[in-house]
């Protein structure tokens, strides 16, 4: 079966996942985390990609980003991936691949899933048992969004600005969202959509996306459509 091309449309938020090959660690220490974040920052700026959120886990990472051009995210991810692997291999005296194939990504409906996706990413270290409080994890965008530090990599999405009229109000509102968490069904939908490449949103959103691209944006059932009443065979 032919590989489904990634879906990339300018002006829409994309959830991106890159995994380590065979679940192996992709970081050997703090300097590797810092290197990857620096490369993402450099190439996001070059390719005009606004990064809204991220989390770097031990064997994979997530990004939430909106590109200005169709090639922005692919070119950013290609440059980041190649440079990071080259530097990682030199630092750790290794050879060969680091990534589990190409990165995975898809579009998500901002109004319905963008903040949920940010919460999902920020809670990843808690779900993995790495920390009890997401604020204690240094390799995600959470500390930025609760006012603990400023992260120059990040461009807050307009939906984040709508959480409050002041920085303090936004920090508190976002922290409350993370403490409330998301449902298991939302978590699964966010994971599956990115890994499988299908757009995540309500039917009107998906239909609007489909008008903007020749690539299928949602899974369709195999086989011919159900017959209408007029098409039903006449009994003998």
UniProtKB/TrEMBL annotation:
<feature type="compositionally biased region" description="Basic residues">
    <location>
        <begin position="218"/>
        <end position="227"/>
    </location>
</feature>
<dbReference type="GO" id="GO:0003677">
    <property type="term" value="F:DNA binding"/>
</dbReference>
<dbReference type="GO" id="GO:0004803">
    <property type="term" value="F:transposase activity"/>
</dbReference>
<feature type="region of interest" description="Disordered">
    <location>
        <begin position="211"/>
        <end position="236"/>
    </location>
</feature>
<protein>
    <submittedName>
        <fullName>Transposase</fullName>
    </submittedName>
</protein>
<feature type="domain" description="Transposase IS200-like">
    <location>
        <begin position="9"/>
        <end position="124"/>
    </location>
</feature>
<dbReference type="InterPro" id="IPR002686">
    <property type="entry name" value="Transposase_17"/>
</dbReference>
<dbReference type="Pfam" id="PF01797">
    <property type="entry name" value="Y1_Tnp"/>
</dbReference>
<dbReference type="GO" id="GO:0006313">
    <property type="term" value="P:DNA transposition"/>
</dbReference>
<dbReference type="InterPro" id="IPR036515">
    <property type="entry name" value="Transposase_17_sf"/>
</dbReference>
């Amino acid at each position: 079966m032919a590989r489904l091309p990634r879906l990339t449309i300018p002006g829409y938020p994309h959830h991106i996942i890159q995994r380590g090959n065979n679940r192996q660690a992709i970081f050997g220490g703090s300097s590797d985390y810092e290197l990857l974040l620096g490369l993402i920052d450099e190439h996001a700026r070059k390719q005009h990609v606004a990064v809204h959120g991220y989390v770097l886990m031990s064997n994979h990472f997530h990004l939430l980003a909106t590109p200005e051009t169709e090639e922005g995210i692919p070119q950013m991810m290609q440059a980041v991936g190649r440079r990071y692997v080259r530097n990682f291999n030199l630092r750790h005296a290794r050879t060969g691949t680091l990534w589990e194939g190409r990165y995975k990504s898809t579009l998500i409906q901002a109004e319905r899933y963008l903040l949920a996706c940010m919460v999902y990413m920020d809670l990843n270290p808690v779900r993995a048992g790495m920390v009890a409080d997401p604020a204690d994890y240094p390799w995600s965008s959470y500390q930025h969004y609760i006012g603990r530090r400023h992260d120059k990599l990040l461009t807050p999405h307009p939906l984040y600005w709508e959480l409050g009229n002041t920085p303090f109000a936004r920090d508190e509102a976002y922290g409350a969202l993370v403490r409330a968490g998301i449902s298991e069904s939302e978590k699964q939908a966010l994971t599956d959509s990115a890994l499988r490449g299908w757009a995540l949103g309500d039917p009107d959103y998906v239909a609007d996306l489909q008008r903007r691209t020749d690539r299928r944006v949602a899974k369709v059932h195999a086989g011919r459509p159900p017959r209408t009443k007029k098409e039903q065979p006449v009994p003998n």
